[in-house]
């Protein structure tokens, strides 16, 4: 006769492999992955089947299951090209999900005496052998349902964050290590409960405690991914703002050179007019026309930004219509203003670039009313946008730093006591930003 406990070693290993597999989809794989996966899976099942059980008590059975769990870590190292911290994260999450599913099923069975009424199934972590031939199929259905629901819920909770985790640093190793210790303690406590708790009320209370620990572990792992996501966003925003600072400095040097060249050419034009060189004058006027993109708004920083972007638009056959009054913008730092306007115009240029030449128009207005500065950028757009958190999601393949431009603009606007809003209606993309001089001066 095959005993429930002995056969459950294989069942446990299959459940553990499935639980860990929920979180391995995003990991980098080693060469010949399919071969490695087949070898490691066969090895794990063989280890589970052959693991000796010379005697049965809470401590040895705890050692048995924790040892099998440790072997899965070796299998993950054999199959995946990832830092140990990532492997440990997925392994702990998988084991927690497997253990939580078992606990929920066991608590339900303890509370309802389902297996007593309808027939038993192989009892997980049973305190003694259970006949494999005594179970009823209705128990199997509830058993499978419990695992399926818990596995699916955990996957829906954690996988979206794993998917958007660009560099897949899944969390601080110290926190992941602590959660690993928690699941080890929970497994041992559960075995003590199985072997030494007899009262039904006490059993349900201890089951509830074990379930709470597993839920707490999943919450901690989820918070680690959320923190990782926020850290990625913060890094991306800082990168975009710093890039804007360097780009503004380069743009200022370029516009300064243009100004110098423009004034030199103006002097030459005046001299040619006095001398009467018609042919040379016509050529010089044509060259001066190319420098007519110089913008004067009353704010040197704004002049630099709009001049640079006007020249860039002209190179792409894009018309940039500006109504900008730069007076009263001194409270905005130069690189912050560049982050706001530079990213806004760059995004608009990218959107209209795919349109026919006659439709490539970007409108920008900037004005100050009292303590508030309103920036409005509008352009036609093709296709649809996916929105997340009120902001359009980047359509570029590489998301390491793409997509943080709009987020950096929102962050900068909020630093000045304002905000950012986006509206897409009838093929027109509208971006509005508000800044408060009063907020900045109060800071």
């Amino acid at each position: 006769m095959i005993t429930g406990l002995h056969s459950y070693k294989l069942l446990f290993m299959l459940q553990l492999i499935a639980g860990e597999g929920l979180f391995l989809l995003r990991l980098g794989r080693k060469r010949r992955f399919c071969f490695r996966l087949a070898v490691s899976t066969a090895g794990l099942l063989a280890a589970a089947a052959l693991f000796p059980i010379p005697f049965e008590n809470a401590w040895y059975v705890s050692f048995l299951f924790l040892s099998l769990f440790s072997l899965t870590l070796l299998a993950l190292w054999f199959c995946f090209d990832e830092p140990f911290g990532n492997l440990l994260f997925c392994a702990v999450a998988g084991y927690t999900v497997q253990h939580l599913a078992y606990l929920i099923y066991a608590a339900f069975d303890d509370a309802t005496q389902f297996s007593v009424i309808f027939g038993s199934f192989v009892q997980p972590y049973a305190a003694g052998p259970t006949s494999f031939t005594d179970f009823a199929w209705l128990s199997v259905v509830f058993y499978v349902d419990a695992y399926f629901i818990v596995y699916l819920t955990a996957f829906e909770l954690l996988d979206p964050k794993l998917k958007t985790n660009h560099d897949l640093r899944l969390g601080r190793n110290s926190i992941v290590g602590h959660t690993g210790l928690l699941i080890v303690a929970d497994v041992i406590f559960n075995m003590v409960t199985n072997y030494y708790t007899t009262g039904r009320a006490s059993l349900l209370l201890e089951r509830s405690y074990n379930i709470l620990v597993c839920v707490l572990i999943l919450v901690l792992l989820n918070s680690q991914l959320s923190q990782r996501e926020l850290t990625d966003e913060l890094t991306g925003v800082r990168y975009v703002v710093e890039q804007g600072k360097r780009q503004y400095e380069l743009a200022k040097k370029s516009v300064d050179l243009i100004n110098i060249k423009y004034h030199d050419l103006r002097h030459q034009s005046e001299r040619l007019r006095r001398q009467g060189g018609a042919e040379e004058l016509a050529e010089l006027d044509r060259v001066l026309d190319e420098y007519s993109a110089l913008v004067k708004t009353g704010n040197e920083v704004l002049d630099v930004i709009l001049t640079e972007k006007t020249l860039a638009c002209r190179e792409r056959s894009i018309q940039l219509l500006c109504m900008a009054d730069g007076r009263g913008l001194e409270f905005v730092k130069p690189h912050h203003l560049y982050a706001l306007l530079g990213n806004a115009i760059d995004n608009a240029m990218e959107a209209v670039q795919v349109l026919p030449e006659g439709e490539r128009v970007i409108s920008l207005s900037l004005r100050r009313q009292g303590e508030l500065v309103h920036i409005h950028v509008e352009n036609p757009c093709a296709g649809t946008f996916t929105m997340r958190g009120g902001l359009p999601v980047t359509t570029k393949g590489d998301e390491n730093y793409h997509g943080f431009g709009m987020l950096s603009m929102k962050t900068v606007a909020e630093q000045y006591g304002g905000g950012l809003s986006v509206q897409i209606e009838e093929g027109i993309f509208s971006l509005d930003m508000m800044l408060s001089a009063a907020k900045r001066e109060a800071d």
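The longest strand covers residues 361-369. The chain has two domains: 4-235, 293-442.
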